[in-house]
Records
---
Amino acid sequence: MKVKAYLAIEQTISTMSGNLEINERHEAGVAIVSLKGRLDAASSQEAEQRMNSLIDAGDRSILVNLGDLDYISSSGLRVLLASLKRLKKTGGDLHIACPKPAVRDVFTMAGFHRIFTIDDDEASALSSFTEKA
Amino acid sequence: MPQKPPNLVYGLEDTLPLPTALLLGLQHVFVMSTAFIFPVVIVRSFGGSAEQAAFMVTMSILAGGVGTILQALRKQGMGSGYLCPAVCGPSYLSASLLAAQTGGLSLVYGMTAFAGLFEVFFSRLMHRLRILFPAEVTGVVVTLVGVAVIPVAIPNFLGISPGDAVTEALELFVAAITLGTMVAISVWSRGKLRLYSVLVGITIGYILAAATGILGGPEIARILDAPLLALPDLSHPGWSFDLALLIPFTIAVLCSSLKSIGDLTTCQKINDAEWKRPDMRNIGGGILADGSSALLSGFIGGMGQSTSSSNVGLSIGTGATSRIIAFAAGVILILLTFFPKLASVFVVMPGPVMGAGLVFVAAFMIVNGLQIITSRMMDTRKTFVVGFAFIFGLSIDIFPDFFTGLPGSVQSVFSSSLALGTATALILNLIFRIGIARRKTLLLEPGTDFSDTIFTFFETMGGTWGARKEVIQRAESAVNELVESIVFLDATREAIRADIRFEEDSLDIDIRYTGKPLDLSPGGPPSDADLLEDDTALARLSAFLVWKYADSVTADDKDGECRIRLHFDH
């Protein structure tokens, strides 16, 4: 239990780009990226760089928590898709957790709900990584 | 065609077996009987006889029965087509008391008939008055309609009445068990038992009241002594009119109509899963039925009639809104005037049982009103409209002594939280319309943080216009997608102009820029492989999303100026 608690607070990195706040932390071997605000053309470049940094650093399981994301545009969708593609090529995976109804609707409209594993809460998303492993 | 909400067991147009319709109609009559007391209060105010009281109650019940049927009709402009029963309107009480004390019952009947006639004419103007009733004003009225039930509900719930200011433990016990039964059936029962939650609660309440002595010998004797079958007493005192009472009765009928607008709006909302705004033409038909029943009531010797908020609350609570129930309730009411023994069962309803029923239905009315208010985005103006309406309206209930010295002609406005709160909301809504632009222009510069400009603009104007949040979210998303596309494809390097026009039923956005036209032809989304390998796929995804967000998209270009029009139903 102690080890898990330590992992949960291992490191939190927070940055702000445009109207998007990005927070990173690791828990149980999964990189959790929390997005807050809007993921659109103004912020997608920074978001893409952060995702690439994680993948370049060796992270193969990335959980993107969209609980505080108010809006995602096609540019934002593309960033998530590109990251998923990169991870899949190396045996990794990217899951989505807690999207608000408006954001979930965008995933559904664009057909991305068929491409991504989307969970209603972070704990379920984390355990879905464990189940796959 | 309204879409039936999933929580309704029997929706507006659903048919139901006759026994079920009669039982549900009877349940409504129990709730309506709480208003039978008003004619008694009027007759007692000038020292009238028990026979005069019985006559006025009987004629009011008859007018209520006819009014309930007229309301459910929806034929040739008469009626709204909803289960929205007519009862003795509390809005008429103050003016009727004034008439009774100055000219007796003939003056009450004459002035009530005048008020009904006024409402009939008023109903023909309803469809032109939409501007007066945006969602936040209607929501305030519906909420206050629920609040207006509290001063009647709580004293009865606590067993308090004129001459009995003490709450006894047994009265509280009966009220709590009655309310608890209704709530428990509503929340935890399965199947169709929920339909009868109030009827079961009231029946248990009657049994407990009889067992504990609250329903005592005099009340039971009254039921036993009443004849089973008898023709209504037709000793009508005639009609008279007094010009001095025109103002109080006009105010009374306006307050009654506003309450009915609130009730009918609630009926529209609870019967349509996709309800967006009050249908004023339909409400006009409802007000015509309301006025006709008041006119009839004044003519035959009853009290002014108005739609019953408590019964609308009952419909929500039980999940049964079928028009057939209205016809059943109307017929039962008419029959009651010929069966005095049955009518007396309702008349002797114990206070705690009546209070429990009213508390139950008021809860639904209040929450419905709040839902209507919050269905729209709020800004400072609308916050004041809603906030001040509640503050000044509720001040009547909290500080009733402050308003007792006002002239009789305006007493109706200051007689209840509903009347004053509604008047406040209506006046403030009109004042705050000053300076609201329905058309706005937005200039977006490529290379800047245009998304922030777009989202800030729509969030601010959405609140100012009182727009539906869902429509504003789709509009801002569509405009952002379009501008992202224009910038991504480098279609222009000049400013992009967006002209936005808001009306209550539509939001139109006209986007213009000088440069290359976008391909906005409708089609499916690009594949995920395309999105990563083909640069134009992102623009195709944008176009696809724009089509999904907007209700219609048109695009053209002329002499290098590209124009894209987005339309959103509101």
---
Amino acid sequence: MFKPEILLVDDNPADLDLTSEVLARNERPKRVSSVMNGVEALGFLRHEGKYADTPDPDLILLDLNLPRKDGRAVLAEVKADPLLRRTPIVVFSTSQAEFDIMQSYNLGANSYVTKPGDLPEFVQAVESIENFWFGCARLPRKEEQ
Amino acid sequence: MKFSRAEILLVEDSQEDLDLTLHSLGHERVATDIIVARDGEEALDLLFCRGAGSGRSFENPPRLVLLDLKLPKVDGLEVLRQIKSDPRTRTIPVVILTSSKEERDLIRGYELGVNSYIQKPVDFEQFRKTIKQLGLYWLITNQAPVAGRTARAAGQSS
Amino acid sequence: MIAGELIVEAEAQKLHAKGEKLSVLMVEDSVADTELIRRELEHGGFDLSSEVVQTAEEFARQVHSNSFHVVLADFNLPQWNGMEALELLRREGLDIPLILVSGALPDITAVDCIKQGAADYVLKDRLARLPSAIRSALQEKQLREERKRAEHELAQKVEELARSNRELEHFAYVASHDLQEPLRMVATYTQLLAERYRGKLDAQAEKYIHYAVDGAKRMQTLIQDLLAFSRVGRQDTTFAPVDCNLILHQALESLQLAIRESGAVLTYARLPEVMANSSQLLQVFSNLLANAIKFRGSDKPNIHISAERQAGEFAFSVRDNGIGIASENAQDVFVIFRRLHTRTEYPGNGIGLAICRKIVEQHGGKIWVTSREGRGSTFTFTLPVTEPVPAAQEKFKQEYVQA
């Protein structure tokens, strides 16, 4: 059975914990990795250094405000890289600013989800992301390329 | 408070699939307004506010485009290419909804910047479930680009 | 004319008061004329210091090394003429009034000179006019400088305003992201704690957790409301003809649930077309209608919407049979975050009417409430009449009744 790989990019450990916990709640088998800044995210995707053996993620959940390399820059780089650009990126940010939303879509984000400030809603958002992308959408997986 | 009505542009030439999709969307009550285009040319006219869409404005784009691939006049992938290569329309979320099993279409779709790709399930119940999930995700979970702000924000980000 | 002369006199006196000599640069090849001019100016009350040049090179050198109050230039000189002196002053960006002092000058040329920027021209056989011509030229220059200063100050103000606007935008961004994020942590992790330890905590602990979550959530809504309030006015507000009947329909549609649940009965008259920003106007109607439903008494809400033309404006009214407002509070309701009831009685943050007022004022109208406690309220707002007004919209009659 298909076991999706998810990469979480977020500098807030509390959000990483919460997202991982919600993802772990349902029974769909999956593997969740996480990195805490933009440079690490690109290293992970390009299998650099300690990431030589990491799998290619099927979906990236990307926070916008990240240290070292901003989420917007990561988005722009991934979407400009012929080897990486097919990987769907869901921007997952606290920001509800229209500017952030528009800029993300302009940079090629596949989707933009605001982190809800309420636990049940947060759980619902993460479940909805998982259900749609792994239960509904067809992803450009490595073996299909 | 958001006042803009959720609007979906459904581009579909097959009458059965159209009925099924409309039924599923309506049944789940996830959308209030659905506009239908029966071929690629009509879809482009509606999106680019010309011809049949001349009464529309770039300020009020649909929240979501559901795009079939095998379309008369202009092919779905070409419609996608045009949407994603024009700054006035590129932020509109486009989801391909196709019965094509071709890997090529899948890869090409993502290469052209499609927001997501869905293969129509053959089973009716499965189809309905898929449309329901899709509606929930794109109309509720996902933050649509802000209507009326497309041009301005596109300018700012450059 | 007399008043003008007086001002000119005052200018000359100002020059004198500063103990300053009138510094004159003469472009003149006739020594006799130079002497005549000097004498005329001294006779005219000026304390004089002057230089005389004959060639363009000398002229250029002089205007750069000294600061002159005025240039007096003959029109016809052997190698060049006064027009070229004008051209040089303009090229160098020097604002020194230049008066042509010349023998017979064809009228057409004199007009040309003034058009080119000469302050005046004085015929050599009318030299008595020269002192007042100089005074006018000096005064004009002073006005020019004042205007330039005012323009500069205005440009600075505009720049300051733009900067404070950018700061406000930045604040709004910080509020929407940087403030929300820690708040989100407090709310979600407190909820997570409650979930994890459900049944293991005593009732008091559950209550405390509830207080913490409620506080964080209220803060989140407050930030959202504050942002919504600050957005009115920052958003580009394009005004277009708007059919208020359509706006009312949209407002009613968005309130469907509340209308159904409260059993509200709504009646409305035909509304006019106005120049407005449609989404903002929709917000005004929605907020007023939502309030009319929310602040209901024991009876089912009975709400009537109407419009009436009064002189240059339309007055829109939303009348309800709700709990009403005590007259001493009638103005308070439009103040941001001002609430007249506890949250348990009526939920809300006190932002809706503040937004309504901001929007109505931005449209050039006013909003107020007339009410009697326990007897319902009527909220009225005005919008300027769109010109020209289509005749059909002049008469409003009750056309629809919706239950």
